[in-house]
Amino acid sequence: MSENILEVQHLKQYFKVRNGWKLLDLKAVDDVSFTIKHGQTLGLVGESGCGKTTVGRTLLHLYEPTDGKIIFDGEEVTSKNITAMRKKMQMVFQDPYSSLNPRMTVEDIIGEPLDVHKLYSTRAERRDKILSLMETVGLNAEHATRYAHEFSGGQRQRIGIARALAVDPKFIVCDEPVSALDVSIQAQVINMFEELQERLGVAYLFIAHDLLVVQHISDRIAVMYLGKLVEVADADELCNEPVHPYTQSLLSAVPIPDPKITKARQRIVLEGDVPSPLHMPTGCPFRTRCKYATEQCAQVCPELTDRGNGHFVACHNR
Asked: What is the pTM of this model?
């Protein structure tokens, strides 16, 4: 058995966008490759619009991939076998307010995956499974007959997590699962994700903006910019010794609750705006905002290369 639960090879996701009379390719995800080991977490970070959520949705074929391979547990994921694969691959969505059906009770929301995949033989067994899942994520049995609007944001996200766990998956895409929650609730949900991983051995792709949250929960971190991965490394190494200029800029913006350290730090402010994915710059996508950019950067897009100890960087000059 492979040590990797998921292998993504040269994944591309292009959307057709009309610009006047022309149909242009919007390159949301462009040649992305990474692996996730059994029972581990890969954190995926980057600014809004860089393609993080599109990666997660494409892995589960919520979007049909334009190109590339997705190999899950030794088997390639295709449109033909994705229905069977979804028993092993699930997703927790970003917005706990819009991802739950307002016309369904909590019992029916959590029980829907059980119905789809026929994972029970009697109604009593179905209800027992649902109540067990609710207990796992910290919800009370009396919540089963309530509707989504009767819950807080943190409780709704717990319902979404219980729904994802219903089919006993091996891998979960967590699409910014705490960004819509209060800070105190964020900590509870993050701790719950860690406890579930320890107990069930589930692997995560954890998509987020907050680098401190990602460092806390992830084994490895991948940094994404304009549809491409620019740096991948172990969580602590990437946060302590970033190599790519974009990663350095992201980390310099992370607030640290120590006034002395904050005063001594130098904020790396990027100049210019993010280019449009409809009109990508030639060569390196980051070169228009990079102080190290050279003529080579304008001509050749750098590939992710191993700088040692599994630390991959896509940069000509760093």
From this structure: 0.91
